[in-house]
Structure formats: C-alpha cells, structure tokens
Amino acid sequence: MKDTINLGQPVIAAQGLNLVFQTNDGPVHALKDVDLTIGKGEFVSFIGPSGCGKTTFLRCIAALEHPTGGSLTVNGMTPDEARRKRAYGYVFQAAGLYPWRTIAGNIKLPLEIMGFPRAEQEARVERVLDLVDLKGFGKKFPWQLSGGMQQRASIARALAFDADILLMDEPFGALDEIVRDRLNEELLKLWARTGKTIGFVTHSIPEAVYLSTKIVVMSPRPGRITDVIDSPLPRERPLDIRDTPEFIAIAHRVREGLRAGHSYD
Which family, according to UniProt (predicted)? Predict the structure, then answer.
C-alpha cells in the first residue's frame, strides 16, 4: 500500500460535539462530548452497539444531521459547506441502485446532477468501474448482479466525482462472511490506490481491526468515545493477518472498550 500518503493533516475535526434529538418522550442524547481528529488518508472505523451514535456521527460529517453543541469541521469548512463543495462520497448500508438504470447509469447520476460534460461522465464511469473490478458490467442492470457486486457499484458511484473523503455506513453488513472478506480485501486495495480518507461504520470487530489505521470505540447512548486505537498493523494486510498475536491483541482491546462503555452511568 501507499506509504507516501501525508497522514496527520486534519480532514475531520470534532470538539465537544453534542447532538440532542427532541422527541415526544423527551430529549434523546445521541452524541455527547465527542472529540476526534481524522488525518488525511486515514482509514477510521467506528464500532459500538446499536444506538451508540456511530452512524449519527457519520451523518453529522455529511451534514445529514446537525449537532446541537460543540464544533465540527470537514476540510476546514462546516459540514454544510463541505457538502456544497462535494467534499465526500457516501455509501449507505443498502446499495440503493435504481433498478431501471444500468450500472453505468446509476454511477452517472450524481455526475449528471452536477453538470459534468457527457464525455467526462463516460470517462469517469469507466475509471471507477475498473477501480471496483466491475469493468464490462456497465450495461448490466442491478438485478443482474450479486449483492456484493451491487455494493461495489454503489462504492463506484460514491467515487465517481472523486471526493477526497469516503463515508461508509455498514456497507457490507448484509453480506455473507465469504463475500464480506473478499470485499474487505478489495476495499483495502481501493484505499491504497486512491489515498482517500475513509470513515467506516461497522458492528464487526474483525472487520474494524482488519481495515483500519484507527478504530473509534463508542459507548451506548449517550454516544461517547470510550477508546481510540491507532493500529500498529502494517498497511499491507493479507486476510491471514487476523491469526497473528498483534491482530488478536487489538481485537481484545476493542472488546474491552465496548465493555467499558457499558459501565457509564
């Protein structure tokens, strides 16, 4: 993998971040006092139990939710400014492909909305299809592809306008373990080729440890960070690295962080 990426340059910075939802049953504290800095080119996974705020934090970065306290910057801008400047691509849990559009047509959609010239649309589609190993599948429809291939097409769509940041909300959660392992390997290769900063939500401890340069462990609501683990693993990671003592030690620390989160009042 690329070792030339300039890690450490702040891309996402949260200080004292809070988010309270007002509901009929009273206020719900989704995020509380979250402090986190993500450097350029890092692969950061967010892990924690359901309702701990991992997806909410990702949605705050994408300006899909708005914090009620603290500060959050994306590329030195507010999340709303970053959204207007197309600073990120977002991959949802479901592939979300339009069944009446071909794979190429689905990938083109954001480019059409953004007004890219037709020739550039075609060039970008070919490039990202190649990046996600779907070359030759552009004329297929989503129903003609497997679940894993559909999710790769969804990633290609998020990559099409070449944003520096890729936000991924449990993109492989619905896939079987064999497909998930293969896509984890492919995602690491994609990250190595593109040098993007990736924020990745997962419920899987092995997935978080395998993929990440940094693992953010979060507590149950109110969502707080219980641990931030900078991975000592090499950036070149075959799947069998999961059997090494170093990998197992990190996974143990993640579990301890998850347990510690349940001790909060």
Answer: Belongs to the ABC transporter superfamily.
